[in-house]
Amino acid sequence: MEIDKQTQEKPILLMSHLVLGYPSLEENRQVIAQMVAGGVDLMELQIPFSEPIADGPMIARANQVALDGGFKVREGLAFIAEMVQEHPIPFLIMTYYNILVAYGVEDFIREAARMGVKGLIIPDLPPQEAGQAMDWCREHGGGELDWIQLMTPTSSDARLAEIGHNASGFVYCVARKGVTGNQTDFGKELATFIKRCRAATTLPLAVGFGVKSREDVAQLTGLADIAVIGTAAIHIHEAQGAEAVGQFFSTLR
Amino acid sequence: MKPGYFGSYGGAFIPEILHETFQQLTAHYEAAREDPAFWAEYIALMENYSGRPTPLTFAANLSDHFNKRIYIKREDLNQTGAHKANNVMGQGLLVKRMGKKRVIAETGAGQHGVATATMAARMGLACTIYMGAIDVERQRPNVFWMEQLGAQVVPVTSGSQTLKDAVNEAMRDWVGSMDDTHYVLGTACGAHPFPEMVSWFQSVIGKEAREQILKLEGRLPDRVYACVGGGSNAMGVFQGFLEEEEVALIGVEAGGKGLETGQHAARLASADATEGVAQGYRTFFLQDGDGQMKDTHSVAAGLDYVGVSPILADLHIQGRVRFMAATDDEVVEALKFLMKSEGLIGALESSHAVAGALRELPEMADGSVVIINLSGRGDKDIFTIADALDDPGWRQFIAKKAQQYAQLDKERS
To answer: How far apart are the C-alpha atoms of B88 and A60, rounded to whole Å?
Structure first.
């Protein structure tokens, strides 16, 4: 994935996130079109899992609602392939490792590469367990499918260096402790953390967890390369419908 | 082999944010294991606080009936009435060593929650218990005791609102609170070092049982039966006999309404479970083809779980432990049989071990020596057991009580 070229043109990139099948794939289709129209640069599509341990209550509930609505992984993948064809921005898949295990890890990665997906974010597969999956990304992705690593404020400098060493595409920086959707204080601590991440990798940095307003994005500009907006978009969608989502993103930057 | 693996099972599949927390926990656990003073402190505490060693009771009437030598390992006599005390007190001592001030735990039926709350009270720690909202409804007496002991009980409304969802919610707490908080996982599951660490604390059961049976019978048992939910009581008692191939070890899982109905929680005794990775570890899970966890069923809330200890999964693959499933109906019969013949009120969970033994005793050679691990007592589960036994007197009593409360509410409003 070539993030570098994109970042040179814009002060900061916006990456949106949504849970497939929540509330339905049809609704997802409209929201994605709105997000792209609203200027989103990258998109993270989450394949629902019944045990989403790294997600907060909002996204965890979205996972459950999608599954209760009959979401199936193969339909979800077909939908992602359709979105990749339809929209000119990079799409990434976020999900939990068991979804890959059940599908067949190598088959899943091969399929993602074939579909033109640009990255995989698997929060419960830590670096020490991910070696084989990273190899498969390289083997089947031909440099186009990145295994996205996560850096967190609790990681030691040595650990960050180790993660940075294996990273490709960009690095996802978890801005704070806690799960998705909680309040993040974009203060001095965040700046210090981002600085530690910079020291560990030359790749672009995405900052997620709790970004919800134009002010948050402004604060991240110059600090990070990509702002990730997840839970906030779900709130807007639930309260005001799909069209409001496009409006929301167009005012963020 | 990678640390934390048992054959292909186990590992530590945790979010990066918890990496350092697990490193710290593993370091403290390993240091404690190397330190004989830690185990001595643990045993002294369990003797003084939880009545250990628990007896290995000779079941004279059962033995007569079947013409065998049957012994019951009395984990029901622990503090709070189950083997759960062994694990929570051990982890409590570790929390003290780590200098943390707060503990959190998941609970299904409430036993592990109550045990954790007593430990927190005793050791002066703040305590939050996550419990599925459905379980909160079903297990009010345990919620009552947890709250009285000073714990905060948080009903979990996500997912299926039962045990696995309580685990997820406890993890969510932990990723934000790990600096001052330890997660007291209740069974031999989860990410490394939990399966190994919980099994270590529970090994006190097997150590005692081995010594006791050698003293009482002058030889090792032919068979040992234990129920298997997550697997901690089974791991506890089995560890006393793992090295001796001649001792048959049998794990009894929840057969629910029958394996053929799909409404059960038999991960290893049925063909329904497949390998997967969830809740931090690799094992056999009851899941669908997409890898989504299924709903499980058992009359015993403590056995109603989608995964199973990775150590037991490995022992199953090795063929060292044999697994079978007992149905809800068999379990209720076993509970009644043990009560009437020995005066022992087993928990519904533990009655699975009794049911497994009762099914196989008739075919064993006369004079065979059998140990059944009675992991917990049943009188604390009076609401569930009275329902399972469909007792009319109890129903009447509750209906009357409900009327009295309704009247009281009316007078107050």
So the answer is: 29
